[in-house]
Design a protein that fits this description.
The complex is a heterodimer of chains A (317) and B (345). With 317 residues, chain A is α/β, with parallel strands linked by helices. Chain A has a single domain, classed as Rossmann fold (3-Layer(aba) Sandwich). Chain A has eleven helices and eight strands. Chain A has a six-stranded parallel β-sheet with strand order 2-1-3-4-8-7, sandwiched between helices. In chain A, α8 links the parallel β7 and β8. In chain A, α1 packs across α2, α1 packs antiparallel against α10 and α1 crosses α11. In chain B, α1 runs parallel beside α7 and α8 crosses α12. The two termini of chain B are 33 Å apart. The chains are: A alpha/beta (317), B alpha/beta (345). At the A-B interface, α5 and α6 of A face α4 and α5 of B.
């Protein structure tokens, strides 16, 4: 497969940007916006971005850094947005949980399920305008508990709309485990009752996720029907913020360590090395490149001006 | 006499003309294409444009609103219709957390212009959850235009204006106005947001009334005119944005204010109007402000209770005498009941 380097590069782009956040968040106190990190979950966003075409649109929720960066949302605007600066992608109005760059088709809004019907509406417009684009809704396991998820799936199936539903099942909603929130059967099996194709994939194996998305997207684009993919993955850091929280009682260090062993970046790096596609030096270089990019963008963000107070009431209507 | 249309006919014409003017306009919602066509308002559009642009939808108010947003940010102009505005409680997350904030949050880079029509019910025992009037919720949050046109002329112009602007618009249409006629020009025209109409001029008392209460206020003004009281009736047309200037100019002149709303008083539109006057020209008031609205209970079904629950011109007449400091010099006549709604639903 030709896209392996791209997948690694995108995952490293996300990881290094978020590790920069981890480094500076508490220390510098410059990012005054609640951040929901995707560390450990990068495979889904990277695979999605590589599998999509530029005209496709992605709609996601509060844990949006990964999808935003993978879909090539304004990079410097990302750090500037987290720092609340005028050069932020939304001029400091949106923050970490609303990362949106319409120029590349990435939209985020953090109320659970809020953007799922919006993705369906985008797909409706593509159908009405006879475009070949598709819309993607990315959300966590808790969002399937929201009424609007059921409504949106029902609408998309009934109206035969080109929507890819991507559930990043990371087992916890904040600190509440899946077992207290949903019946024991897998999510993708329950969703299948809506009479459309659904699938489950190891969300930490980026090559498998990519293959699943490629198949799903081909089906959606040509059959003009929705598709649902559940990606089993795991949030390594705390729900919101830069820290680890395995000592807080709701999960164990053993569980976290077990998932750290399934790190999607480490797994793909090993494959690329074993198959002699990339050397360790090349992989390290790619990692350093993104680390440097993050350093530079953060430094630049801190040098950027604050939004003008007079601009505060612009763009309400 | 120039051409007269009912409020419902005017809506139907506005939708057809809006769809003719802009191929991106489409109409959807539960029952928009059925034989009744939302009290006749969507039927003409369906007959002209068919199911590609006027289509039925599942009973999913929240998702439908999100769908409208997603289509709107891609250049479509959705018109989402709810047969009762009470159903819009199920759409509040999308309307308030998404639609109202979309353009602002993304710094003007993405806009979601779409129209939500919600119908206010009243009478025939529609009861607690089908005869509310929920404008104050929408008007509270910056980012939504909230229109409550009171007549067939304004509703057409407001719909056509809503299909041209850059922001989401909520239009609340009182079912009791649907059969009332007014002069409506055939050609398309727009009515501005935030521009109140002085629908009757007077020097003694100002009534700021929303929607159906404009109609009731005009009847009340006729009654007290026999006693020499000259009432000025102001119809804000949109309660967000609100034309404060026209209200203040009138109250500065009359010194007396009555706010008549189609809903409860607490934290409502009538409170807002009173606050605007109190903040700006308290010295102009010659009498305490009077507010007309629902009593502090949900709307009941029984005719005996409905009759005392829904305020009418009679309550407004009493309020006018109170603020004018006069004893009624004429009996309040029994005017023909406006509400032609005869059920079953």
């Amino acid at each position: 497969m030709d896209n392996q380097r791209d997948l690694l590069s995108l995952m490293l782009k996300i990881r290094k940007a978020e590790e920069k956040i981890v480094e500076v968040y508490a220390r510098d106190q410059k990012m005054r916006t609640p951040t929901h990190l995707s560390i450990g979950q990068e495979a889904v966003a990277a695979a999605l971005a590589v599998a999509l075409l530029p005209g496709d649109q992605v709609f996601t929720g509060h844990r949006c850094h990964a999808a935003y960066l993978a879909k090539n949302g304004d990079y410097e605007g990302f750090f500037a947005e987290l720092c609340g600066r005028a050069s932020g992608v939304s001029a400091g109005r949106a923050g970490s949980a609303h990362l949106t760059d319409p120029s590349v088709g990435i939209y985020s809004s953090p109320i659970l399920g809020a953007t799922i019907p919006v993705a369906v509406g985008a797909a409706l417009s593509f159908e009405m305008d006879q475009k070949k684009d598709i819309a993607v809704a990315v959300f966590g396991d808790a969002t399937v508990e929201e009424g609007v998820f059921a409504e949106s799936v029902n609408f998309a199936v009934t109206k035969k709309l080109p929507v890819l539903f991507v559930c990043e099942n990371n087992l916890y909603s904040t600190h509440s485990p899946l077992s207290v929130r949903q019946p024991p059967s897998p999510i993708f099996e329950r969703v299948r009752m809506n009479e459309f194709p659904t699938e489950q994939v190891d969300g930490n194996d980026v090559l498998k996720v990519y293959e699943a998305f490629r198949t799903a997207i081909k089906y959606i684009r040509y059959c003009r029907m929705p598709f649902f993919v559940e990606c089993l993955t795991y949030r390594v850091r705390e729900h919101v913020g830069p820290l680890h929280d395995y000592d807080r009682g709701y999960r164990t260090k053993e569980e976290v360590d077990q998932w750290l062993g399934k790190c999607p970046i480490a797994r793909l790096s090993k494959t690329l090395f074993d198959e002699k596609i990339m050397t360790h030096t090349e992989i390290d270089k790619e990692e350093e490149k993104w680390a440097q990019m993050a350093d530079d963008a953060y430094t630049k963000a801190l040098q950027s001006p604050w939004p003008d107070a007079l601009s505060m009431t612009e763009h309400v209507y | 006499m120039n051409r007269q249309l009912t409020y419902a006919q005017s809506i139907a014409e506005a939708l057809v003309q809006g769809m003719e003017q802009d191929p991106n306009v489409f109409v959807f919602g539960l029952g928009v294409d059925d034989y009744k066509g939302i009290f006749g308002t969507t039927r003409a559009a369906f007959e002209k444009f068919g199911k590609a642009r006027v289509f039925d939808a599942p009973a999913s108010e929240g998702a439908l609103t999100g769908v409208a947003i997603g289509a709107a940010l891609n250049g479509k102009r959705p018109v989402l219709v709810h047969a009762r505005n009470d159903f819009m409680f199920l759409a509040l997350d999308q309307l308030i957390n998404n639609a109202a904030k979309w353009k602002y949050t993304y710094n003007g880079k993405s806009t979601v212009p779409f129209v939500t029509r919600g119908i206010i019910g009243k009478g025939w025992g529609q009861g607690p959850t089908h005869s509310q009037s929920i404008q104050s919720i929408f008007a509270h949050f910056p980012g939504l235009v909230v229109a409550m046109p009171s007549n067939a002329y304004d509703i057409k112009g407001i719909i056509l204006q809503s299909l041209k602007v850059d922001c989401p618009v909520v239009i609340l249409e009182h079912r009791s106005l649907y059969d009332i006629k007014a002069e409506v020009p055939q050609n398309p025209y727009t009515v501005d947001f935030g521009k109140a109409n002085v629908v009757r001029e007077g020097s003694d008392v100002t009534i700021v009334a929303s929607s159906l209460m404009v109609f009731e206020s005009l009847k009340a003004a006729d009654v007290v005119a026999r006693d020499g009281i000259q009432v000025e009736v102001i119809d804000p047309v949109t309660i967000q944005p609100l034309d404060e200037k026209t209200i203040l100019r009138s109250v500065a002149k009359t010194g007396r204010l009555i706010c008549a709303d189609t809903s409860w008083l607490r934290c409502g539109f009538s409170a807002e109007v009173a606050a605007v006057v109190a903040e700006n020209i308290p010295q102009a008031l010659k009498a305490p402000v009077k507010r007309i609205g629902f009593p502090e209970c949900p709307s009941p079904v029984s005719k005996a209770l409905e009759d005392v629950f829904f305020p009418s011109y009679r309550d407004i007449v009493s309020a006018i005498y109170a603020v004018a400091g006069k004893e009624p010099g004429v009996d309040i006549p029994n005017l023909q009941v406006v509400d032609s709604f005869k059920g079953p639903y």
